[in-house]
From TrEMBL:
Lineage summary: Bacteria, Pseudomonadati, Pseudomonadota, Betaproteobacteria, Neisseriales
Subcellular location: Membrane
Keywords tagged on the record: Membrane, Transmembrane, Transmembrane helix
Domain of life assignment: Bacteria
Transmembrane segments: 12-31, 43-64, 76-98, 118-139
Start and end residues of each TMEM205-like domain: 10-106
Annotated protein name in UniProt: DUF4149 domain-containing protein
Keyword DNA-binding attributed: no
Any Pfam family matching the protein: DUF4149
Amino acid sequence: MDGLRAITRTFWIGGLWVIGLIVTPVLFKMLDTVTAGMVAGKLFAAIAWVGLVCGVFLLVDNIWRNGVRGMKESSFWLIVGMLLCTVINHFAVTPIIAELKLQMNHAAEGLFGGGFATWHAISSLIYLVQSLMGLAYILRSD
């Protein structure tokens, strides 16, 4: 089970860092903005689903190994925080961004650009917080 736990942590948290720090910047340097944004959006959606599965596994594993006292550990609450970031970003913020993109396609970009930029910044901040919680989790993990 230790190996599966390590793979799960690596897959989720490593994926967050690789997509956020390496893949997305490369996409925006190599492709036009629209294509890079579409590909990055698909990658962020994929890592969100990975996070949901891995996060639930890590929480269940923590409770299985430690019982209710596991809820007193910081690692438990870091995973809860990361899952909350995933849920908020994927199910609340991303749909708002998608709707604003559609509106931008049907109207002058200047009219909706501020809303898009604001929600994109919120999404980026949530992703950063999630990634830093993942780093803290890795540093605290057994």
